[in-house]
Amino acid sequence: MFTRVVELRAKSGKAKELSTTIYDKVLPILRGQSGFVDEIVLVSDTEADHLLALSFWNRQQDAERYSEEGYPKVNELIAHLVEASPTVKTFNVDASTTHKIAAGKAA
């Protein structure tokens, strides 16, 4: 399993709207992508305008395809709500109790 961690800085006072937009508009795009597994959105408890969006993918290739084909549309949907372009980092999922993943095994 593979994950994309997207760090977002919402414009002042726009964190809730950004989170809602991710749920209402971005999640349907993600669900339509091959290999998409799950999305988790975290809002900082100390910095109200700081969010992390974690998307989980069956394979790295699935996430890369989304990054090229779907992510530009997502950026358009959220551009008016963020201070700057989101930062994207990628990781291999080593373990997960939710998805019952063991290190070195693909889901």
List key phrases describing it:
107 residues, alpha+beta, Alpha-Beta Plaits, four-stranded antiparallel β-sheet, 3 helices, 28% strand, globular
What name is given to the CATH topology?
A: Alpha-Beta Plaits
What is the top-level CATH class? Alpha Beta
- Give the domain tally: 1
Rg is 14 Å
What is the strand content? Answer: 25-35%
Report helical residue fraction: 25-40%
DSSP strand tally: 4
Structural class: alpha+beta
Spell out the blueprint of helices and strands.
Blueprint: E1 2-9, H1 15-31, E2 36-43, E3 50-57, H2 60-69, H3 71-78, E4 87-92
Antiparallel strand pairs: 1-3, 1-4, 2-3
Q: Can you walk through the features of this model?
A:
With 107 residues, this protein is an alpha+beta fold. It has a single domain (2-92), classed as 2-Layer Sandwich (Alpha-Beta Plaits). Helix content is 33%, strand content 28%. Strands 2-3-1-4 form a 4-stranded antiparallel β-sheet. 21% of the residues are buried.
How would you concisely characterize the structure shown here?
With 107 residues, this protein is of the alpha+beta class. It has helices at residues 15-31, 60-69, 71-78; strands at residues 2-9, 36-43, 50-57, 87-92.
